[in-house]
Amino acid sequence: MTTIGGLPITTLGRQASAQLFIDTALRARTAPQRPFYSTSANGHVIALARSDAAFRALLLEADQIHPDGMPMVHLSSFVAKTPLKERVATTDLIHDVAALAEKAGVSFYFLGGTDEVNRAAVARLGQAYPKLAFAGARSGYFTADEETEVVAEIARLRPDILWIGLGVPLEQSFVARNIDRLAGVGVIKTSGGLFDFLSGRNSRAPGWMQAAGLEWAYRTLLEPRRLFGRYFRTNAVALWQILRHSK
User: What is the C-alpha separation between 117 and 114, in angstroms, rounded?
Assistant: First the structure.
């Protein structure tokens, strides 16, 4: 673990993280307990944690925070004693975990997205990994009154790995409220817009833009109204945090 932008960030790479998920999920089958909780941080998350103490507290409840931003990885070599090995984007990690899950018989549950996006995400991942088991799936559109029923259904199905794509900070709040009611689930991974990418609704940036840390710029070009203001406000704050609050 290392500190980047004031947050404790895991130094595990994608393959090691994927294997950890599988091993943890299999152990939880024989000894049900509080799920292992993994979330992610990028520039937006670092900036939000700087301005919102309650959100920062939610992040610190996680057992693991992945670095989901190439600027974090690049800068870590200069600002941290233990540099980050690589970016661990959930959109990449899902494939690493799915490949191992097929062989180990580890099951997934997708919570999030619209009905259409959720169904497409399940179908397309299933096509890529035909032996992958799904314990269930549900859209992320439910009322506060329905949340107890949703959580109870997931707990009953006991998926090995629960992927939650409700967006920041809603997914972190959801986990904080419900993690103790999900004993028997091995791993919980907050996933942001993962299902939009898996379903084909959104596309990834070209490889060279990802490697250069410019995926945020590609996404802004695709969704300028939604994302221009966010990145304009948060990029400078995140950079300052990384430069001043890493060790």
Answer: 5
> What are the CA-CA distances from residue 165 to residues 31, 32, 85 (Å)?
26, 24, 25
pLDDT tens digits, residue range 8-51? 999 999 999 999 999 999 999 998 789 999 999 999 999 999 99
| Mode of pairing for the β-strands spanning 187-190 and 161-165 | parallel
What single DSSP character describes residue 5? T
What backbone torsions phi and psi does residue 156 show, to the nearest 5 degrees?
-65, -40
- For residues 241 and 51, what is the distance between their CA atoms, to the nearest angstrom? 11
* Buried-exposed string 129-149: b where 16+ CB fall within 10 A, e elsewhere: beebeebbbbbbeeeeeeeee
Q: Which secondary structure element, helix H or strand E, spans residue 234, and what is its range?
A: helix 224-244
Which residue's structure tokens are 């490949």? 99
pTM score: 0.93
CA 71 to chain CA centroid, Å, is 17
d(CA 186, CA 170): 21
Q: Please tell me the distance from the alpha carbon of residue 137 to that of residue 113, in angstroms, as a whole number.
A: 10
User: Which residues are CB-contacts of 42 (< 8 A; sequence separation ≥ 6)?
Assistant: 67, 68, 69, 72, 216, 238
Cα distance between residue 240 and residue 172, in whole Å: 24
Q: Which two tokens stand for residue 21?
A: 């998920």
